[in-house]
Specification:
The chain is an alpha/beta fold and about 625 residues long. It contains 17 helices and 30 strands. A 9-stranded mixed β-sheet has the order 2-1-11-10-12-13-14-15-16, with helices on both faces.
Length: about 625
């Protein structure tokens, strides 16, 4: 096959043959069977509970993975799971999470859930997906996952079985003795209606040499991934087996080699880890390593990262900008000569951070782009070929990207380097049925084909895609559109700054004014006045210069390292409203900011019977963000 290197090479790959003739596996189990037959004794997946470079790890070969996936899928069928029934899992990274993900797709529809979510959000997702079986942790020290899930199951009446994973078997020595003595209680596990069983004990009872049911090779929905869930009203995207196999084919054909050892400290409830990495390693027969249950967030992971790379002879590092920033705060103290590339996704990578990483490691970074609604992969910078730092590279073969502008006459395709909404079509897009809730698919496609991503971008003269912002992230100052990326890129260039999140704060005159929240490099010291002066020098658009800058100990982030801007907007609303309330001698304050499905962010005020409510209504009525009494 032609090497993925330029726009012309992408066209050449497509012209070789239609995608349907590529011989891609038709189901997850068929793909697993092919890989196991080709590389039975090669390592498939490794997990270590602790981050030390000599700590115990468990490695499964492809033969062992197939046997355990077969057992797990057979157990799920025995528990009454059919092709359209949902198996949810709320687990930190571990080999059992990996097995559940694959087996859930074989037996039914798998639904990974972020275990960091609160009980109410987990319960909402279980209800939205109509889950029947839940795989989660057995109560374990320094974790509340088991307790949250047990409580959530009480509010998900269709769940009939809970399978518990006990991390104790990954432990050795005195820790293995102590944990049972200090294991926290989980009274909720006896308070719900579902049966509770030990995951490993139950799968061991099942045959491992063959499925007890026929593997359906017709395409079907095999996974649900929630795209939010932080408000209790999640959107759930549907992923077909063919879409996941497309992601796996891309990884195996264009990115990974069979000999690669891939370090993936990203969570196994997110498409980046599950589809980009796991499907690619499954398709290529390469080896993926998961360090600690919390990945990059695990104790000691960043301090030991270079040594872990040396231990596992890592050739491909999977990362995100926040993790790259943390890596650059630690010296390279190990032999990392095995590394040939790093893959960064989830958010734009600042140019200065790229340069620091390359100078410190001698390793290049390729940036990619994908989204949950499209199963995942859309584009990336080619491993062989020109890397344009700041771009998300070339659209993959069999992926069509259009930059469209919505007009009264309908969508209009824009010219080279013109900014509009990124709209895509590829085998990962489930056209017309992206979300489980039909109403959420309304107006989601242009021409009934191209998925509207909500991302703003442009395509340059070489065919490279550039993300310029989120349509909904635009700061609108008196009708003037400001791209927060301009503010973030400028402030990220300051040597003391690790990460930046720019948003629009409420303003009674202009609607919004730009403001910026920053996280500093460890040990760095800088004051707000210096940062404001730096912003004025480096932000060329006067209207985009932030009116307020605040340094936080740590920016709120999603599980894959993106700055979580809803939390920053809540901080800004609270600060601005409290200031105007105090200025007008109104004896109340904002106690919380909630997200309402119809009204957006709503400020909740502390009730005070003595307050002049007419005056309060007049003052806060000058802002676009609504308020209510708590």
């Amino acid at each position: 096959m032609v090497t993925f290197a330029t726009r012309e090479s992408v066209l050449a790959i497509e012209e070789e043959m239609p995608y349907e003739e590529r011989g891609v596996a038709r189901s997850i189990y068929e793909r697993l069977s092919r890989t196991e037959a080709d590389y039975p004794d090669s390592p498939a997946v490794s997990f270590q509970l602790f981050s030390g470079p000599t700590d115990k790890a468990e490695t499964l070969t492809w033969r062992e993975v197939k046997a355990k996936v077969t057992q797990t899928a057979n157990l799920l069928r025995q528990l009454g799971i059919g092709e359209k029934d949902v198996i949810a899992y709320a687990l930190p990274n571990c080999n059992e999470a990996y097995l559940t993900m694959l087996a859930g797709m074989v037996a039914g529809v798998v639904n990974p859930i972020n275990p960091l979510l609160e009980t109410e959000q987990i319960a909402a997702i279980l209800r939205e997906t109509d889950a029947r079986v839940v795989v989660t942790l057995k109560a374990f020290p320094q974790s509340d996952v088991a307790q949250k899930v047990a409580e959530a199951v009480k509010h998900a009446p269709r769940v009939h079985t809970v399978l518990e994973v006990d991390l104790l078997h990954y432990m050795t020595g005195i820790k293995r003795v102590i944990v049972p003595l200090i294991r926290p209680r989980n009274p909720g596990a006896k308070g719900h209606h579902a049966d509770v069983f030990n995951f490993n004990r139950e799968i061991a009872k099942q045959p491992s040499d063959a499925l007890t049911f026929e593997d359906n090779l017709e395409d079907r929905v095999a996974a649900y991934f929630h795209t939010g869930g932080t408000t209790g009203m999640p959107k759930v995207a549907q992923h077909t087996a063919s879409g996941m196999m497309y992601n796996g084919w891309l990884g195996s054909a264009l990115l990974f080699k069979r000999e690669d050892n891939v370090l993936c400290p990203l969570p196994l409830f997110h498409v980046f880890a599950c589809h980009v990495i796991c499907m690619s390693t499954l398709s290529s027969g390469s080896h993926v390593v998961f360090p600690t249950p919390k990945g990059y967030r695990g104790d000691g992971v960043f301090d030991n990262l270079w040594k872990l790379i040396e231990r596992w002879k890592i050739s491909f590092i999977i990362t995100v900008p926040t993790a790259v920033s943390a890596m650059m705060q630690r010296p390279v103290d190990a032999d990392i000569s095995s590394v040939r590339m790093a893959f960064s996704g989830s958010a734009p990578l600042p140019l200065e951070l790229y340069r620091r990483f390359e100078a410190a490691t001698g390793v290049g970074i390729i940036e990619g782009y994908g989204l949950t609604e499209a199963t995942c992969l859309v584009s990336c910078n080619p491993i062989v070929g020109k890397k344009k730092v700041g771009s998300v590279g070339l659209p993959f073969p069999y992926t069509t990207v259009k930059i469209l502008e919505h007009t009264k006459q309908g969508p209009v395709e824009l010219a080279t380097d013109e900014v509009g909404e990124i709209c895509i079509d590829n085998p990962g897009v489930f056209t017309g049925s992206t979300y489980t809730e039909a109403d959420k698919n309304h107006n989601l496609f242009h021409h009934d084909i191209y998925l509207r991503t909500g991302d703003l971008g442009r395509i340059d003269e070489d065919g490279y895609l550039w993300i310029t912002g989120r349509a909904k992230d635009l700061i609108i100052r008196g009708g003037h559109n400001i791209d927060p990326a301009e503010i973030e890129e400028a402030l990220a260039g300051h040597p003391a700054v690790a990460m930046v999140g720019a948003i629009g704060q409420p303003d009674s005159h202009s609607g919004e004014l730009p403001c910026a929240y920053l996280e500093l490099v460890s040990g760095a010291k800088v004051d707000k006045d210096e940062l404001m002066a730096y912003a004025k020098r480096h932000i060329h658009e006067r209207a985009a210069i932030p009116k307020y800058v605040e340094i936080l100990p740590e920016l709120p982030k999603t599980a894959v390292g993106k700055v979580f801007k809803p939390d920053l907007r809540k901080l800004a609303i609270t600060r601005v409203y409290d200031e105007v309330l105090a200025k007008n001698d109104l004896k109340t304050r904002v106690v919380s900011v909630i997200e309402d499905k119809k009204r957006g962010l709503v400020a909740q005020l502390e009730r005070n019977a003595d307050i002049d409510e007419s005056k309060l209504t007049n003052i806060l009525g000058q802002f676009t963000q609504p308020w209510e009494w708590q």
